[in-house]
Structures are given as structure tokens and as C-alpha cells.
Amino acid sequence: MPDIAAVFGSPRRNGNTAGLLKSAVAGAQQAGAEVDEIILRDYKISPCQEIYGCKKNGECAIEDDFQQVRDRILSCKGLMIATPIFFYAVSAQVKILMDRCQSLWVKKYWVEKTPHEKHEAVRKGLVIAVGATKGKKLFDGILLSMKYFFEVLDMEVWDTLLYRGLDLQGDVLKHPEYLDQAHQRGREFAAALKTVRSQTG
Ligand SMILES: Cc1cc2nc3c(=O)[nH]c(=O)nc-3n(C[C@H](O)[C@H](O)[C@H](O)COP(=O)(O)O)c2cc1C
Description:
Layout: E1 4-8, H1 16-30, E2 35-39, H2 66-74, E3 78-84, H3 92-100, H4 102-111, E4 123-130, H5 140-152, E5 155-163, H6 176-192
Parallel strand pairs: 1-2, 1-3, 3-4, 4-5
Helix pairs in contact: 1-6
The chain binds flavin mononucleotide.
The site of flavin mononucleotide (FMN) has 19 residues, from helix 1.
């Protein structure tokens, strides 16, 4: 099983978040971690249709690439997820993945009847986000979304790497210090995961 799932959430294959995430992945690999790279734009994942087929056994009733992406994320000790800021929110690709994970929420709280206060963060996540503008509240929306998304995955936010003022493809390359920071945090993330016990999914 890989140690880390790295989710590339931008529609732009070689955009700013992808550059930063690749740097974090390289850092983690240098520290000995095995990384499973998931480029969301390459998968066919429908939005949640709110039909609650998952009420039966926690399994999402829509059969598409979601199931394999979910299983790959759940089997790792850590998740790196990168998203551009789109209208102060995550990208559509990331939002669709989050919404489909409502089936995990249903499984935990409705099917298995886990008490809400029994939330246990057994795994860790690193969030990377990039926006073009410099507003103070630029990341407020996605940080709330990520917090609750991670809860569903039994995960806690280990760190967030948030970068303002990057817009055009390649802008991040003008900031080697950002790429260096992502690399360094990737290394440290891999080290932090050594204490996390293996998951079976
Ligand atoms: C649909 C869309 C919506 C966007 N909304 C915002 C926004 O609300 N705030 C902001 O600062 N940048 C916004 N941007 C700019 C992107 O966040 C920025 O270009 C970022 O660097 C893209 O990252 P990527 O190259 O990894 O895709 C938007 C871009 C697009 C295409």
C-alpha cells in the first residue's frame, strides 16, 4: 500500500497547484514514502445525485471511477490534496469528490451509527491551495470545506500551504521559494506519517 495519496485537483494539468504538489510529492519520495498520484481530471466521476442509495450499506449507488479513487485515498496513511481557488471555493473536480464522499459520512453515522463525538482522526492531510488575488479571506471557504471533508475520511489537517497572487500557468515557477517550501513540507509530512498505523480501507 502506498503511504500517501496525492490528489491533483486542478483542471490544469501543469498549473500552479500541480507544480507545488509535484514538489511536495518529490520531497515525500525523497524521505522514503511511496506516493500514489491521482490526477482527478483524468477520472470520470459524476456529481452526487442526492439519491441516498448509500443509506442501504454506505456504498454509493453511482458506479463510476469514484469507487477506485475513494479506495486509493482510504488505503493511505496520508493525503496531499491540491486545489486552485475558484470563486473562493475548491475546484469542481475536488468538490465532486468531496460530495461523493457523503456516502462515507452516511456509512459512518447512519449505517454504522457511530456517535458523532467519537470522531477519531487516524490519518493526516496536507492541503495546498492557490489563488490569483491577495484577499485576506481567500482561503476561508476551502479551509472549512477541507476540515469537514477530512473528518469524513478520519483525517486531520496536518498543514496547509496557501499561496496568493499566482494566476497564469507557470506563475509558480517565478517563486522557487514556494516550490522549496512545498518540497520541505512534503519531506516532513512523510516523516510525520511514520507514527500513523496502516489502514486497510
Ligand atoms: C473558474 C475560475 C475561478 C477563479 N476564481 C478565483 C477566485 O475566486 N479568487 C482568486 O484569487 N482566483 C481565482 N481564480 C484564479 C485561480 O485560482 C488561479 O489562476 C490559480 O493559480 C489556478 O491554479 P492552477 O494553475 O493550479 O489551476 C479563478 C480561476 C478560474 C478559472
